[in-house]
Automatic annotation (TrEMBL):
<dbReference type="InterPro" id="IPR001296">
    <property type="entry name" value="Glyco_trans_1"/>
</dbReference>
<dbReference type="Pfam" id="PF08323">
    <property type="entry name" value="Glyco_transf_5"/>
</dbReference>
<protein>
    <recommendedName>
        <fullName>Glycogen synthase</fullName>
        <ecNumber>2.4.1.21</ecNumber>
    </recommendedName>
</protein>
<dbReference type="Pfam" id="PF00534">
    <property type="entry name" value="Glycos_transf_1"/>
</dbReference>
<keyword id="KW-0320">Glycogen biosynthesis</keyword>
<dbReference type="InterPro" id="IPR013534">
    <property type="entry name" value="Starch_synth_cat_dom"/>
</dbReference>
<feature type="domain" description="Starch synthase catalytic">
    <location>
        <begin position="3"/>
        <end position="242"/>
    </location>
</feature>
<dbReference type="GO" id="GO:0009011">
    <property type="term" value="F:alpha-1,4-glucan glucosyltransferase (ADP-glucose donor) activity"/>
</dbReference>
<keyword id="KW-0328">Glycosyltransferase</keyword>
<feature type="domain" description="Glycosyl transferase family 1">
    <location>
        <begin position="295"/>
        <end position="451"/>
    </location>
</feature>
<keyword id="KW-0808">Transferase</keyword>
<comment type="function">
    <text>Synthesizes alpha-1,4-glucan chains using ADP-glucose.</text>
</comment>
<comment type="pathway">
    <text>Glycan biosynthesis; glycogen biosynthesis.</text>
</comment>
<dbReference type="InterPro" id="IPR011835">
    <property type="entry name" value="GS/SS"/>
</dbReference>
<feature type="binding site">
    <location>
        <position position="15"/>
    </location>
    <ligand>
        <name>ADP-alpha-D-glucose</name>
    </ligand>
</feature>
<comment type="similarity">
    <text>Belongs to the glycosyltransferase 1 family. Bacterial/plant glycogen synthase subfamily.</text>
</comment>
């Protein structure tokens, strides 16, 4: 099949979160399965140009109809670690992608509406006719709308759309000016509950809802999160729309790029290790302790958190886990950046307060090299999310022999199985500890069991870590599921 992915990110050239990793990993897996894959991305001024090989002109002066007039774009082509990518660069005083950041501008809705329009215009004018157009999250929610309301009448009537929702929290709520800009000019038609009208604001359109309604197949990034989206408030108001489109909605678990996340060959570790050389994992703990000036005491397990410090990630439980781990005579290492000023101020205060404690280190920011070393060193990885569509942290932790302690939500339910209480897996298939309520006591019941196992039964702790390493959360199975979805909607 010929597949075009349209997205706002692709790691490592454009990465603001897990979306970029998914775009790259899925594209690579599809190519390994023999499919032709191309990516269309915005050409941000701040992206990592050093990860692009052979960047050159692909289409000069692409004329994109916009606001009753036109904006011209240049489209550049290059390879990102083997993936063929097209980058759209508008030549406009709006400077849609010359902002010094990927997201967060006041006109984000207009920026990504233009990107969606330009991507479709590029496919049309360059005579690219993919079997599947795969678009992601609210930023490209208008792609299937534009395809089925405009471009199918211009020779693109055989293309089918797969739409993947990575996070329901951000949906792209905008006004009628988006319709006028993109050429979807019939307000009364689109401001309809069964089309683009937001479910709770009759005067707004919803990009993500448009993606759901107009796509041939819609999925979120884990089976359990798909269930949550339909039967809880986690869909942030789109539950009824998903109910109306349930026949084409499902969940496919994200994969993990095992070329990047592999402790046996990871160049960022102090010492490589695998299931047969598990003892060498301790050398990474020693290296991390030396780097962060932590006390060398192997009687204390190393508990770690890696991720954003925000409401989604259960920041109040992250904070509590630091002090609980210290109270249980453990060490704690945190690597993460806060998404809000008040949270940043809170954790900077904690960092200063704990600065002289030899058993804790808070690294506020993000450092890819340090992240790998922390995974390699960690005995226990904490993921106390309020909601988690899929989650990569627990998968990476399992891969690196760090036992995950997770809250039972979203993709965490599909990947971590409680050592003591899981009834769906035999003891030899369990791989971590799970708690369900979003409170401190629930966290302590799981984290406490993990710490106690480390101290009281090191052999059983190692066995559990090895059982986690045995799981295959690569792109192999998800890649097959996506191919099956593509073949289904083509038929």
């Amino acid at each position: 099949m010929y597949i075009v992915q349209i997205a706002s990110e692709c790691a490592p050239v454009i990465k603001a979160g897990g979306l970029g990793d998914v775009i790259y990993g899925l594209s690579r897996e599809l190519e390994l399965r023999g499919h032709c894959v191309e990516l269309i991305l915005p050409m941000y001024d701040c992206m990592r140009y050093d990860h692009i090989w052979g960047l050159h002109d692909a289409y000069r002066n692409l004329e994109v109809p916009w606001h009753g007039s036109s904006i011209f774009c240049d489209v550049f082509c290059g390879w990102v670690h083997g993936r063929l990518c097209f980058f759209i660069q508008p030549k406009s005083s709006d400077n849609f992608f010359n902002r010094g950041h990927y997201y967060g501008a006041l006109d984000d809705h207009m920026r990504f509406a233009f990107f969606s329009k330009a991507a479709m215009e590029f496919l049309l004018r360059s005579n690219k006719r993919p079997d599947i157009v795969h678009c992601h999250d609210w930023q490209t929610g208008l792609v299937p709308v534009l395809l089925y309301e405009i471009y199918r009448f211009h020779g693109m009537d055989h293309q089918r759309v797969c739409y993947t929702i990575h996070n329901f929290k951000h949906q792209g709520i905008a006004g009628a000016n988006i319709l006028h800009a993109t050429g979807l000019n019939n307000d009364s038609y689109y401001f309809s509950y069964d089309r683009l009208q937001d479910n709770f604001n009759p005067n707004a359109i919803n990009f993500m809802k448009g993606g759901i309604v107009y796509s041939n197949y819609v999925n979120t990034v884990s089976p359990h999160h798909a269930w949550e989206a339909r039967f809880s408030d986690i869909s942030c108001g789109l539950g009824h729309t998903l109910e109306l489109n349930q026949q084409k909605f499902g969940g496919i678990l994200n994969g993990l790029d095992y070329e990047v996340w592999n402790p046996e060959i990871d160049p960022l570790l102090a010492s490589n290790f695998g299931p047969k050389t598990f003892g060498d994992k301790a050398k990474n703990k020693q290296a991390l302790r030396e780097r962060l000036m932590l006390e060398a005491d192997d009687n204390k397990p190393m508990v770690c958190f890696i991720g954003r410090l925000d409401g989604q990630k259960g920041v109040h439980l992250v904070h509590h886990s630091i002090y609980y781990a210290l109270d249980q005579e453990s060490q704690f290492v945190l690597l993460g950046s806060a998404t809000e000023p008040n949270l940043s101020k809170w954790f900077w205060h904690e960092k200063q307060h704990l600065n002289d404690n030899p058993n804790v280190h808070l690294e506020l920011g993000f450092d890819e090299e340090l992240a790998h070393l922390i995974y390699g060193a960690a005995d226990i990885i904490v993921v106390p999310s309020n909601y988690e569509p899929c989650g990569l942290t627990q998968m990476i932790g399992l891969r690196y022999g760090a036992i995950p302690v997770v809250r039972g939500v979203g993709g965490l339910v599909n990947t971590v199985f409680d050592r003591d209480y899981d009834q769906n897996h035999p003891p030899e298939k369990r791989n971590g500890f799970v708690f369900y309520q979003p409170d401190q006591y629930a966290l302590e019941t799981a984290l406490g069991r993990a710490i106690a196992l480390y101290k009281d039964d090191p052999v059983a702790f190692k066995t559990l870590a090895l059982q986690g390493m045995a799981y295959d959360y690569s792109w192999n199975k998800p890649g097959l599921q996506y191919v099956e979805a593509y073949e289904y909607i083509r038929a």
